[in-house]
Here is the input.
Amino acid sequence: MEISSATFVKSSKTLKELPPPVRPEYAFVGRSNVGKSSLINMLCRRNGLAKTSGTPGKTQLINHFLINDTWFLVDLPGYGYARTSQTMRQAFSEMITQYVVRRENLMNVFLLIDSRIPPQESDLSIMQWMGEKGIPFIILFTKTDKLKPKGLEANISHYQEVLLQAWEELPPMILTSAQEGVGRDDVLGLIYEVNKGFVAPK
Here is the structure.
C-alpha cells in the first residue's frame, strides 16, 4: 500500500471529541521518547506530520490523521516518563485505557518498543493487559539502526525469552527504523489486509 495523502484531522482530550467511528483506525502507542513521531512520519513519508520533540511526554492528546481518505492513524499519548506529573501519568493511562477498550473501529494497536533497552515493566504490563482484554496488538521494535546486527538479535531474543515466561505464543513483532525506512512495507501491508475486512459500526 502506498500513501497518497496524510492529513491531520484533530486532537481530542476525551472520547466524546473523537471523530465518528466510520473508518478503520490503527493506534500507535509507546513509552515517551520511543521514537513514535519519527516512525509515523516515516510510514506516511511526511516530515513534520507528527510533531517530534526533544522533550519526552509532549504528546498529551489523542491525535487523528486521515490516510488516503480511507483510514485513521491514531497517535496516542506516550507513557512512563518520570518527569510527567503523577496526576498527568494517571490521566494518560486512563485516556489510553478507555480509548483502547471502547473505540469500536480500532482494528489494531501498534505498541512501540525501543530495541536498544531491556524489557520495561510498563511495556510488559500493557501487553499483558491487552492480551487479557483480547485487544489485537503488534510490537514494533524501534531504532533498530542504532544497534549492530548481533546486538539487535541478542536484544530481540532476550525480549522473546522474557515474554515467553508469561505468554504461550509470542505476539507478532516487526523490526523498524524511522531513519532507514525498515518495517514500512510490513506495517502498511498489514493495515491494507485488515482494512479489507472492515465493516463500519452501526
